[in-house]
Design goal:
Blueprint (H helix, E strand, L loop, with lengths): L7 H12 L14 H16 L8 H14 L13 H4 L7 H17 L2 H5 L11 H20 L1
Helix pairs in contact: 1-5, 1-7, 2-5, 2-7
Length: 151
């Protein structure tokens, strides 16, 4: 069964994993620092809750439906997956503990948001997603980045 961020048990387990991230942990892939990665994950949840609206990309209109099937399977997200510029253009640096707390609050906000509200949000590449698909996608996205810093 695929984990889903609407599932309180899965969300609480993810929160523990985030709390246990070490600022000194080397990254397994990517270029973001740990504070930037935490900010990136917060922006992803903002997108899912509709607080951050990112325009749909043209390639997503053509190929999003194909990749949506893959991204929702019970397997990890691969490193180097294309990401919207609005989620990865982070040049500032932040306090790691502050960013952890912010991300945890956003996870809790997500799990308490009505599925109907989340289903209204538009993903720039996979659009449209059901509430359950958003929950799976958000859990997998967080898992991807936590694994990046804890393997």
């Amino acid at each position: 069964m695929i984990a889903n961020l609407f599932d309180k048990v899965a969300a609480d387990a993810m929160i523990v994993r985030i709390q246990n991230l070490s600022p000194d942990a080397p990254r397994a892939w990517g270029t973001m620092t740990i504070d930037q990665m935490l900010e990136h994950c917060s922006r992803g949840i903002d997108m899912a809750t509709g607080e951050l609206v990112i325009p749909r990309v043209c390639i997503g209109r053509l190929l999003g439906w194909i990749f949506k099937k893959w991204i929702l399977k019970d397997q990890p997200i691969w490193p180097g997956k294309p990401t919207a510029e609005e989620l990865v253009t982070i040049s500032d640096h932040f306090d790691v503990e502050t960013e952890k707390s912010k991300l945890i609050a956003k996870i809790q906000q997500f799990t308490n948001t009505s599925p109907e509200q989340v289903a209204k949000s538009v993903h720039p590449f996979f659009w449209p997603l059901s509430a359950e698909q958003w929950g799976v996608q958000m859990w997998k996205h967080l898992d991807h980045h936590v694994r990046q810093r804890s393997e």
